[in-house]
Specification:
single chain; alpha+beta; 5-stranded mixed β-sheet; 27% helix
């Protein structure tokens, strides 16, 4: 039997494990919705891409996803049975809103298979919300599951709409 030596080098922390589970949950949920998930190889604020699909037809319309995950024993700010809040860093908001595709923030508890999403261009179009930097989720309305499939179609930019540009 091989021995497992303790090494003082790189560590795969519990939070890193939870974050990987969060991205995996996004992938699974997108597949359940019937859309296409592509994970980003290098993460600088966008974890993955959703290519939207309608009636089996890939649309070449994308949404970008930033995943934030916590273990079941760790709550998000202001989290209750019905809601949660996520405080964003100003440079993250600037990054998410400056791209050419809309960004979804997906907060999850992957161990219990729960995820919620918010369309950031819509949320931060309100100047007061942008100043506050807090994204608020309703755990019923904002579920990131099969019920969100058609909502995502409405959020993707189509070719008639042109390239998404930050307000």
């Amino acid at each position: 039997m091989a021995s497992h030596r303790r090494n003082s080098g790189k560590r795969f922390t519990e939070q890193a494990r939870i974050e990987r589970l969060g991205v995996a949950l996004c992938s699974m949920r997108v597949a359940e919705m019937g859309h296409i998930w592509r994970e980003k190889g290098v993460d600088y604020g966008i974890d993955g891409e959703i290519e939207l699909v309608h009636e089996g037809q890939a649309l070449n319309r994308v949404l970008w996803v930033q995943s934030k995950a916590k273990g079941d024993s760790i709550k998000f700010a202001g989290e209750t049975d019905t809601a949660l809040k996520f405080l964003c860093e100003p440079n993250d908001i600037d990054y998410w809103l400056s791209g050419t595709a809309p960004v979804l923030l997906v907060c999850s508890h992957p161990e219990s298979d729960n995820a919620w999403f918010k369309h950031l261009p819509s949320w931060f179009s309100d100047a007061q919300r942008r100043r506050a930097r807090v994204v608020e989720f309703d755990k019923t309305r904002d579920r990131f599951d099969e019920t969100a499939a058609d909502k995502l179609l409405d959020l993707g930019v189509d070719k008639a709409g042109g390239v998404y540009l930050r307000p």
